[in-house]
Specification:
The chain folds into 2 domains: 46 residues, no CATH class; 150 residues, no CATH class. 32% of the residues lie in helices and 31% in strands. The protein has 4 helices and 10 strands, in the order βαββββββαααβββ. The strands form 2 sheets. Strands 4, 5, 6, 7, 8, 9 and 10 form a 7-stranded mixed beta sheet that branches. A 3-stranded mixed beta sheet has the order 1-2-3, with no helix packed on it. The chain is elongated. The two termini are 20 Å apart.
């Protein structure tokens, strides 16, 4: 389904940012419309495309008297807004980042995720506190984005959306968070990040 916005009727003066704000306000007011593909009539038209992603991040984080290994396999929604990309976390749900390209949005999302871990490590008085807070952060789900993510998976499975620049993996792949106390770090704990299209 497509939702079109006529910029002559939305109260904006044709300014691109004003039109985006008017569209966002309409989307928030019409909450039941979340998850649809939006087409905004601007300079010939801009189509918003949603890509459901599965990602894997591994980090070594130094805290107050401990070093912890943090490994997550999570979900995020990458959105191509025509003039840039945004990546919205599903699990963890309290995270979003943008960029002019998909790679830049993913990189910013990754960096912001790591900064959250640094903040948690700074506040945690012990490894156990850190472990508990990281698990709580990861398990928080952005429910509206989770719905959009599932709808985007259906779009991928139907062939309406494809991202040939990403490998594919079954959307049912399990989510996980693992926090371990590192007594003796070794190079084998260095694992590259992953990003895959959920199908």
């Amino acid at each position: 389904m497509t939702y079109e916005v006529d910029n002559t009727k939305n109260g904006a003066n044709g300014n691109r940012e004003e039109i985006k704000i008017a569209l966002l306000a309409r989307c928030l007011l019409a909450h039941e419309m979340r998850g649809l593909t939006f087409v905004v009539i601007l300079d010939g038209g801009v189509k918003v495309t949603r890509y459901p992603l599965l990602f894997g991040f591994r980090d070594l984080i130094a805290g107050n008297g401990f070093v912890a290994g943090v490994g997550v396999n999570g979900r995020a929604l990458l959105v191509d807004e025509g003039d840039g990309f945004w990546m919205y976390g599903v699990n963890p749900g309290g995270l979003a980042a943008g960029g002019s390209t998909a790679s830049e949005a993913l990189s910013e999302f990754r960096n912001d995720y790591r900064l959250v871990l640094f903040d948690i490590a700074t506040e945690a008085q012990s490894f156990e506190d850190f472990e508990r807070e990281v698990e709580e952060f990861f398990k928080s789900t952005n429910e509206p984005t989770a719905t959009e993510w599932s709808e985007a998976v259906n779009e991928v499975r139907s062939g309406r959306i494809d991202a040939d620049w990403l490998p594919k993996r079954r959307a049912e792949t399990g989510l996980s968070v693992e926090v371990t106390k590192v007594e003796r770090p070794v190079p084998s704990e260095n694992v590259p990040d992953e990003a895959e299209l959920a199908a």
